[in-house]
Structure to design on (127 residues):
């Protein structure tokens, strides 16, 4: 089975916007290089565990996208992973949730990264 995902650069803006809440919603401050690295490593570790279902058609592989909200504890363990926006394929959505649990534990987030992942970080995945 193939392993796939989307690029980190393409998801950083989505992740930061999704993390903003309340009065922060209209202003997303830039994140440090360390936080960008943490997000990249987290996403890469998940993508490394993705095993695409063999039943996905070429068209599905081209069109599917799922957005998952992940809450990570201070110790790097996943507290929760929920579908924020379904791809329309429950099989693909479940594949991504399984990959998230397979990929843990993640590294311990630093203080800045921890603020984002404690509230729920939205990651986008495409086959």
């Amino acid at each position: 089975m193939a392993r796939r995902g989307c690029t980190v650069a393409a998801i950083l803006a989505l992740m930061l916007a999704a993390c903003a809440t309340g009065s922060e919603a209209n202003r997303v401050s830039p994140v440090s290089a360390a936080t960008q690295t943490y997000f990249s490593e987290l996403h890469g570790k998940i993508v490394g565990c993705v095993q695409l279902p063999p039943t996905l058609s070429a068209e599905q592989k081209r069109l599917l996208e799922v957005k998952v909200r992940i809450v990570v504890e201070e110790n790097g363990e996943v507290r929760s992973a929920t579908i924020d926006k379904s791809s329309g394929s429950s099989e693909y959505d479940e594949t991504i949730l399984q990959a998230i649990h397979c990929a843990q534990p993640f590294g311990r987030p630093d203080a800045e990264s921890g603020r984002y992942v404690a509230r729920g970080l939205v990651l986008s995945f495409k086959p």
